[in-house]
């Protein structure tokens, strides 16, 4: 008979690590976006059409990163949920 070994503690740990990492990544991306937007509006480090185009392109790419971060976060949550489901199944199932 085949056997499945699942370490739910490690699954939950990995899920939590992913969630924490996505929080930090999200904050870094938000800070980067603010910094880039300030270049043409507050600090005037870079002005003109090329600067405006750069800000527009990077802002669009950062939105894609936000979506990626949300997906990673969902994977972390799914790991935790699946670990709990495995535990619940193991607690209510006896195989002989």
What does this structure look like?
This protein has 96 residues and is an all-alpha fold. 81% of the residues lie in helices and 0% in strands. It has helices at 8-41, 49-92. The mean pLDDT is 91.
Keywords:
rod-shaped, mainly alpha, 96 residues
Which parts are unreliable, with pLDDT below 50 for 5 consecutive residues or more? none
Kindly report how far apart the N and C termini lie.
10 Å
Largest sheet: none
What does the overall shape look like? rod-shaped
How much is the average pLDDT? 91
SS content category: mainly alpha
Residues in β-strands, percent? under 5%
Task: Put the structure in a nutshell.
By secondary structure, this protein is mainly alpha-helical. 81% of the residues lie in helices and 0% in strands.
